[in-house]
Specification:
five-stranded mixed sheet; 96 residues; YaeB-like fold
């Protein structure tokens, strides 16, 4: 499977990076590395996660983030990477 990060999701990890980088130098890089690893795992495991509306929701392994995606034939399309600590109403609006 190929992975496509849609334009609306490309900037999502930046917020997490800066939040964690302010907590400690290098933690932002660790966050991005961990998130990248989680996203790459979708090449093998896409479609096994719980549905959230018309998308799948994968929980990140080390940080409180969710990766929302769809599968289209051989492509995993990532729609959003969202901090789970956000207001649920905000998350629902973001996913519309």
């Amino acid at each position: 499977m190929n992975i496509e990060i849609l334009p609306e999701a490309k900037a999502d990890p930046d917020d997490g990076f800066w939040f964690y980088e302010r907590q400690g130098t290098g933690l932002g890089e660790y966050f991005l590395s961990s998130l990248t690893s989680d996203i790459r795992s979708l090449q093998l495991f896409a479609g096994i996660h719980l549905r959230f509306g018309d998308r799948f929701r994968m929980l990140a392994s080390r940080f409180p983030f969710s990766i929302f995606y769809r599968t289209e034939q051989d492509i995993v399309q990532i729609y959003a990477v969202i901090d789970n600590r956000r207001d649920p109403r905000w998350i629902r609006e973001r996913l519309k």
